[in-house]
Structure formats: C-alpha cells, structure tokens
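User: Predict the complex with zinc ion.
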Amino acid sequence: MEGGVSLSEIHTKKDTLYGLELLRYVNLEISKGTLERVIPIVCSFNENSDFMLECLNKGAADYLLKPIRPEVAKTIFLHVHRTYTSPSRSTEYPRSIIRRFSNLEDRLDEIFTKDKWLTNTIIQYYTPSLSPLDIPNFPRLNSASEIERTNILKKKLTDWEFDSHKLSEDDLMRCVVIIFEHAMELDELRELSISTDALHRFLLAIRQAYHDSNPYHNFTHAVDVLQAIFFFLCEMRLLPSLFSAGYNRRGKSSNKQRCRPNDLLRDSDVFALLLASIGHDVGHPGVNNDFLIQSQTPLAQLYNDKSVLESFHVMTLFNLMQKYGFKIYESEPPCETKYSEFRKIVVNAILATDMQLHHKYVKDIKEQKSRFESVDFNPSQKLEEEKNIIIGALIKCADISNTARPYHIAKSWSNVLLQEFTCQGDLERKLGLPVGPVNDGRVSQPDSQIGFIDFCAMPLFKSVSELIPEIGFTLNYLEVNRKTWSDKKETEGDNCSLRHNSSSGNNSEYYLFIYLVS
Ligand SMILES: [Zn+2]
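Assistant: Here is the predicted structure with zinc ion placed in the model:
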C-alpha cells in the first residue's frame, strides 16, 4: 500500500489470448460499474509491440515489462492520478469504453459480450443449474441391449394412447432420441450430417433445463407435446412411420381444397416443429404469464408483458443449441438464409403457444382454409405467412392435445395442471395478489375441463381439422371427454361457481379458461 493505492497482481495462464480475455472481462466489469476504482495495467514478459498496443486498445492504462523493477513500481500511482483527473471522466461513459469504441471490432466485441452476459444471467437465474452431461453412458438405441426396449417405445410412440406419465425418466429420454434420430433421416437433414453425440448432448441439456418440481410444465409435458406433433406429422405423411422403410409424401385430400398444408412444409420445417415442441416450455418457472406480469418480475419487464414466458423459452432453446454446438444450419454464409428461415419457424411456433393469442390463431386458421379453397389463390406469394399459420395450428393442437387423449390420460393431465395452479394460488396469496378462481379451487375440475374444451380446444381442433383432415380423429376424443366430464359433474353434484350458456354477455368465463394453460 502506497499513497492510498493498492496493487494487485492477477496471475493467469501464459496464453496471451487468455490475458487479453481477462483484460476485456475486467474492462467490461468496470464499464458496468461492478468493479469500482480499478485501473488495469498489464504486466507481461511479452515484448511484442503489436501485443502491447493491443493491450492499450483493449483498455489497459499501461503496459509494464516483467520483471518489474522497484523504481517503476513506485511510479504506478501516477496512472491513478492520470485516470482520475482525465477530462474524459467528466463524460457519462467510462474512459475504457470510449477508447475501445475507436475500434469497430472492439465495439462489436463489447456489444456481443454484454448480450451474452445478459442472456446467460437470465437463463442461469430461471433454469435449474446444469450438471455435467453424461454423454459416454447415454444408450445407443441400436445397441443389442437396447433394441428390445427401443421397439416397445417405438410402438408406444405410434399410438395416440401414448401416456408419458407412465414412462420412467430414461424412457422419456429414449422416446425423444428415437423421434429426433428418425427425423434426422429426412433427406434435407441427412445432408447436414449432425453427429449423434451433438444431438444427444443437446437433448440432455434440454431435459436438464426443465424444472422437475413443476407438476405440469416439466419434461414429461414436453415429451407429450413432442409425441403429439410427431403423431400428426406421421398422419400427414410428412414423416415416415417408425416401422416403414419408405413413404409417399401424400396425405388425405379434402375435395374442395386446392392447396394443401402438407405441400407447403419442407423437411426443415418438420424438424423445426419437432425442435419447437421439445423446447416450447424449457425453463418454465411453474407460474403463468399473468403471475409474472402481476408481480412485476424482471422477466415480464424485459419482454414488456408480451408473451413473456414464450419469449424466454425461445431464447433459452437457442442458447442451449449454441452452447452445446447443436448447429442445424451455420449462422454464417453460405447457410445464413437457411438458418434465419429455420430460426423464424421455430420462434413463431413457440410464440404461437401463448394462449392469449389463441382466438387470433383460430381466426387465422379459418381464413387460411377459405383462401386455400379459392381458385386464384397462389400460396407462394405469401409463403412464409401461410407456413407460420400451419405451423402455429399444429403446435397449438399438440400443446393442448392432452385434453383430446383418451379420458384416463386426459384426466391425469388435468390433475397435475390443477396442482400447478393451486401452487400458484398459494404464491398469489402470499404476495397479496388476486387469486384466480381456478387457483383456489372455486371452480370444480369437471367445470374447468368442460369450459376449456368448449372455449379453447374444440374451436381450435375443429378449425384445424377442416384445414388438415388428418387431425380430425381428435374431435371424437374431445366429444367423449366432454361427455365424461359432464357425467362426472352430475354424479359429483354441481358445486361449481360458473354458469355456462350465460346470456348476460359477460365473457368472464372466456378469460378464466384462457387462464388455464399458458
Ligand atoms: Zn406447453
């Protein structure tokens, strides 16, 4: 300690890049205000003048050659004086930033570093901490010991009675790998030659980023949605069946429709849908958008109260892809256009799962159906928009498909959803926020399910079935389930607080059921 100045030497590896990285990090912390009254001075054995200048450009106040002689050390305090009396301190920006902005590359570096820091901080805060991924021990599905189990799971995956609640954690993961490895065999994706290890690493990271503690929005729900979308795509013959070698890319055709959704989707769109399905709720905190907005969480503020969770899921999914080297298309030339198209599809698919936009999507789907019947309609004019409506329709159906599964499966999903809402109700009470009627049990389970089928599920599945006849099989399940819930309501007694068929024009029940799944 001399003259109020404290000297600290930071020892690092000898690698010069590491030294510059450290300098960049220190300067970033200074610019954010995390490090106060720190002046970085580089001390090194490196006598290369280019390196010395680079250090100064990266924000070092000075460069001293090692070993440092005592008489040089005595003058280091002069740097402190120079820095704190410099005219640049009168501006609102730290001196280091202004100097580095003189170089465009450094400025970009600064922007990207801050961006990365922000993304990582948000994701670390909201997702479970990722433990090291156990890739070497991950089962190869074609190994002798796995074949029998793989075949059993393949049969389950091709059945609409698929019940992910009945599967072990390992089997859930096997199902995901079966579907993705199968999709990788599509012509357009085979060309990308993505390694099995990269795929497994990424999928394991996705699994870890879901909160197991959520009764509903957990990895089991993600696998359920993935299987539903996989089932739809196989029905539409956009994916071959798991048990057939070849397939014809054709689907059922409705008489009047001149243009068919099946004809507009390419292999990369199919893969984007699968990816969006497994990642559409990644990192979900177990409370809905309303809760995040009402309690004014930083996440809600970040996204200005609009599709808060969905925006967060998209960001987390792409962050994991980047972090674990899962590259579908390079984000640089010559593949940048393909990458940006692919990214748009995934982003739009996940944003479409925001239930606040539910009725807008139902309207869009109906209008698309009319356009597709028109004689002079040319889909290539607005191909991207038309594709987004189809993709949105499919993932929305998959996201709430549990209401259209056989009743015993639909009921188990309804049970865990109510559990999650009850937990949210406890938090709302604790924070002094208004507690929703579904969150404190004021609405009976049969009533909430009947309302959800009437106001959300049936209008969606009906309009999608008209556009895509292959989805039509779900309508029968919905009708049976509605009747079963209705019978249950009668046998258990009418203790619900909501009146249906209200002629008052009050649409409060509409909002109530929108609140159910988001
Ligand atoms: Zn979901």
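Residues 2 and 75 are 10 Å apart (CA to CA).
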